[in-house]
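Colleagues,

For the teaching module next term, I've prepared a clean inverse folding example: a structure given as tokens, and then the sequence designed for it. I'd like students to try predicting residues themselves before seeing the answer, so please don't circulate the second half yet.
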């Protein structure tokens, strides 16, 4: 949910700053003929890439107020499923998402930062500031990016230091609800070959959701980030080193208890009742380091990319969405990641083009999970009597209150992986070319699960609730597995002119196998709780595999009046990994197969030198197949066969109009108006009525003036017509009696 925001932004530009880029719409700079991308490991104009691709300049993203990867769902065709927290489990590309909040697996969408994977919840949703561009690839990218790109890729490229001259920017802003913004950079050349760039960012907001039970307003944030980049170029050799740190303090997911008709029991989307009086917590500390070194030989360029990352993620939320202490969840997580890639890419304009690469990584993540309920709340909710009245009868003595009914445990995953990949392309005729690529991937993962015993008398008498862990472990349960995968891609390109491209592709994507952070495959009876059986292992799921078939066209029409990109796809998805409720127990499982068909398009119209228009849309139809009743069943008891995938609206669309208008000598007026639409979608596999999010439309405005290419004043109005909607709805009426 977003409410109306009026924000004033004041900017000052130092000598040498590239002002025109700061007046850009989200899709391009008005003074830039084309956006150059590197999604195929070589520099290409975005319109020449035979992939369904949306490319955004950093300046344009800033102009549209896009703060992180989740904000892109309003602009990228086929991308949906936003939320206000640091999880990536709702982000859906063409209907494919991963709703596992544990740490035993990977997301289906790949998030990369300067060519280094950065896709884990708690670290992936970092702030957008001082970016060169963002590239969004739709559809599986198994060849180019590998294991973390079954549904697509979001790739952030930060601004590069420039040795040609001193430049900089300072931007500050303020708005209602205690919003304050500050960002900037300074680019300092050391000599003709070496430059450094320092960028920083701050954003804060008080929040806009009222907690009727008390405490501060919810869904606020306080984010701070800093980045230091160094670039060196000397003839054929270049080096780019980047170190960045971000500290994020914001609200976790805020839940609103619904009535039988699906409306908030408070009567207002912007009012909730939560027992977490100081708000849900979502706090991350993220450190990234990357080093890219390249040497250009006569026939090929050799590139080395080294990445290292650490993060800490502390999270807390009130899942029951009410003032009673029933489902208070917390997660404390930390992780580290290291990767190394070498690739060799052909140079020149001959009929042959090729690339080859090898990569390896190590990923470690560990999390403590905790679900707490007040003891009297549990006794009253499930039995209707206070614990002090109920429990002495069973205990044969007095009842001793404890900290609460607590289910807690931990999961730790260590993954080693390596890949070898290559692609060869050939120009068959002046207008027709073909390419064939293949990646071989190997992943080995070890996972350790611990579920701790409960000291509550409620559990001693009635056993575990099983809402997070339905058992306790007598010793850590360790499991190890490995997976291999071949990911081919075949592409055919037909380019009858410089302004027109037609392409077709067949590609395979995959997501490696994973472990369930909350279940084991065998249980032994026990009092008051079951335990792991002898020889039990952590529950595991097989890799996801997707075959995608796509045709598309990109080009320019009417002497450059209209630029466009169109694509149509069909995919076949096997062994879909989803987190499902089996009874009241959450578990990750391969729930079956899925089919998807869709059409996506983007149109850029330039009717006048002072006006630019953009229209984007996506139509999608998905269907679940071969799903068993234990994974998903309707209220009637029937199978979920034929249902749509979660977080997959049938229609999404966005439109933008922007422009610049000289008003006086050295003065210029600029504006931007946006409209974003999503049809209704389901939050769960069962497509239940209560878990359906209604369609919504949001309208945003930007306007301002710029003086002498040095000073700029902006006004922002977000969600101008006060649209209110939920990001998702969790329906657990069958298990616990509410949504």
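(Answer key — instructors only)
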């Amino acid at each position: 949910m977003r409410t109306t925001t009026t924000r004033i932004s004041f900017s000052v530009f130092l000598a040498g700053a590239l002002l025109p880029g700061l007046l850009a719409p989200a899709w391009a700079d008005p003074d830039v003929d084309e956006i150059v991308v590197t999604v195929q490991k070589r520099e290409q104009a975005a319109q020449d890439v035979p992939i369904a691709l949306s490319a955004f300049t950093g300046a344009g993203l800033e102009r549209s107020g896009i703060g992180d990867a989740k904000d892109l769902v309003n602009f990228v065709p086929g991308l949906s499923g936003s939320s206000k927290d640091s999880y990536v489990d709702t982000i859906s590309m063409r209907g494919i998402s991963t709703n596992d909040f544990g740490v035993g697996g990977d997301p289906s969408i790949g998030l990369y930062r300067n060519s280094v994977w950065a896709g884990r919840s708690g670290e992936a949703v970092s702030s957008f500031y001082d970016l060169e561009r963002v590239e969004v690839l739709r559809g599986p990218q198994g060849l180019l990016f590998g294991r973390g790109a079954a549904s697509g890729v979001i790739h952030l490229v930060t601004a590069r230091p420039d040795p040609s001259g001193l430049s900089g920017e300072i931007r500050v802003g303020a708005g209602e609800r205690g919003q304050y913004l500050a960002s900037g950079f300074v680019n300092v050349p050391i000599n003709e070959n070496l430059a450094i760039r320092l960028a920083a960012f701050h954003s804060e907001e008080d929040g806009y959701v009222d907690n009727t039970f008390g405490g501060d307003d919810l869904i606020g944030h306080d984010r701070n980030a800093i980045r230091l980049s160094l670039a060196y170029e000397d003839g054929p050799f270049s080096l780019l080193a980047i170190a960045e740190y971000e500290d994020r303090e914001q609200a976790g997911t805020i839940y609103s208890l619904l009535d039988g008709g699906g409306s908030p029991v408070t009567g207002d989307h912007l009012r909730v009742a939560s027992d977490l009086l100081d708000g849900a917590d979502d706090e991350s500390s993220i450190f990234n380091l990357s080093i890219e070194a390249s040497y250009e030989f006569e026939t090929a360029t050799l590139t080395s990319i080294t990445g290292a990352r650490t993060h800490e993620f502390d999270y807390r939320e009130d899942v029951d969405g009410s003032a009673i202490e029933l489902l208070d969840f917390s997660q404390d997580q930390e992780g580290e990641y290291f990767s190394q890639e070498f690739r060799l890419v052909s140079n020149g304009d001959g009929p042959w083009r090729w690339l080859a690469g090898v990569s390896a990584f190590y990923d470690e993540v560990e999390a403590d999970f905790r679900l707490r309920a007040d003891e009297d709340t549990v006794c009253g909710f499930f039995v209707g009597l206070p614990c002090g009245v109920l429990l002495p009868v069973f205990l044969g003595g007095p009842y001793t209150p404890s900290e609460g009914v607590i289910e807690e445990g931990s999961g730790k995953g260590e993954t080693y992986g390596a890949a070898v990949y290559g692609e060869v392309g050939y120009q068959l005729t002046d207008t027709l070319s073909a390419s064939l690529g293949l990646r071989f991937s190997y992943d080995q993962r070890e996972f350790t699960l611990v579920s701790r015993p409960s000291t509550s008398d409620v559990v001693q008498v009635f056993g575990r609730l099983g809402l997070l862990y339905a058992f306790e472990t007598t010793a850590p349960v360790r499991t190890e597995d490995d997976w291999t995968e071949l990911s081919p891609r075949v592409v055919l390109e037909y380019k009858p002119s410089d302004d027109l491209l037609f392409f077709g592709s067949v590609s395979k994507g995959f997501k490696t196998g994973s472990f369930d952070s909350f279940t084991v495959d065998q249980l032994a009876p026990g009092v008051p709780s079951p335990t792991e059986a002898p020889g039990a292992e952590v529950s595991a799921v097989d890799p996801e595999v997707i075959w995608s078939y796509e045709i598309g066209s990109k080009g320019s029409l009417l002497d450059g009046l209209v630029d466009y990109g169109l694509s149509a796809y069909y995919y076949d998805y096997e062994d879909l990994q989803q987190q499902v409720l089996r009874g009241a127990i959450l578990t990750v499982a391969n729930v079956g197969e899925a089919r998807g068909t869709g059409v996506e398009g983007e149109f850029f119209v330039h009717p006048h030198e002072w006006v630019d228009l953009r229209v984007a849309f996506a139509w999608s139809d998905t269907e679940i197949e071969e799903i068993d009743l234990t994974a998903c069943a309707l209220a009637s008891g029937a199978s979920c066969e034929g249902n749509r995938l979660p977080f997959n609206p049938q229609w999404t669309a966005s439109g933008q109009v922007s422009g610049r208008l000289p008003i006086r000598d050295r003065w210029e007026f600029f504006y931007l108006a946006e409209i974003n639409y999503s049809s209704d979608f389901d939050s769960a596999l069962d497509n239940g009525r209560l878990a359906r999010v209604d369609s919504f439309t949001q309208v945003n405005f930007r306007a301002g003036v710029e003086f002498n290419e040095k000073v700029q004043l902006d006004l922002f109005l977000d969600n101008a017509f006060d649209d209110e909607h939920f990001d998702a709805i969790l329906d657990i009426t069958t298990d616990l009696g509410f949504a």
